[in-house]
Amino acid sequence: MNALTALSDNAVLAWALLACGMAQLSKLLIVLVVERQWRPAVLLETGGMPSSHAALVSGVAAGVGWQVGFDQPLFALACALALVVMYDASGVRRAAGLQAERLNTFMTPTDPDCCSSLEPLNTNLGHTRRQVLAGALVGIFVVLLGMGRTGGVLDVPWH
Fold it and tell me: pTM of this prediction?
């Protein structure tokens, strides 16, 4: 079995990527409903509700637990990595975004020729805890629902 075939047979990865994509796509709908704006660029941005990173890593952890057992060391490893990613998203990356917000306030010089080439820093880097929790729930729900319905196998059309 070649590596590409093996990768396409990895139901945990496939379902987790689907959960990540669904979380990212839902950002577009949330911005449309809440802000009443059509902003497709949100699909390529970090931050926002829900966290697609949290959906991906929690989905992988849930899928690994479903396949190998929730009492196995591999599931513990997947959970530990998921927790680190989610903690980082709501801690370090969020703090970096808040810091960028403050730095942007200093980039309005009295002399416009001084800093005219500086662009504002991206402030939407991390997530609130609520955004991380929502993403994690999306990931777990999508992966366990998908793997439960298919018995842990993803029936892909390119086989």
Answer: 0.78
